Amino acid sequence: MWLDWFNSRIATDVGNSLADHFMAATTATKERRPSRPADRAQAIQSLLARVDSEARPLRLGVFRKAKLANSFKWRLLDRGTDPALVDELTRMLLLRLT
After folding, report:
1. What pTM was computed for the model?
2. What is the mean pLDDT of each run of 10 residues along the chain (98 residues)?
3. How far apart are CA 61 and CA 28, in angstroms?
4. Segments making up each domain of the chain, as ranges
5. Ramachandran region, residue 61 (left: φ > 0; alpha: ψ -120 to 50; beta: rest)
6. What is the Cα–Cα distance from 74 to 69, expressed in whole angstroms?
7. What pLDDT is attached to residue 61?
8. Cα 7 from chain centroid (whole Å)
9. Closest CA to 17 of 53, 60, 42, 45
């Protein structure tokens, strides 16, 4: 029973889902026109809204928050997102979860 505390599958899935959502929002704007700061800001606001609706209700502990952030970060890095942007998005995600 206490081993369920270490089960982080849900957190990993949510982190991957959030990263995929952000990538879809930013690539959709790139296909239409060159990326503008307003488009990126809208994608970030959409990401934070999804954090509020999907991740916050899970009431994750420290270990699961770390797994969520790690899966989010590595999914974005694997998809070729700028590392500085990924670091900033991960910080925003963690601040939003606390």
Report:
1. 0.83
2. 63 92 78 67 91 88 91 94 94 92
3. 33
4. 9-97
5. beta
6. 9
7. 87
8. 19
9. 53
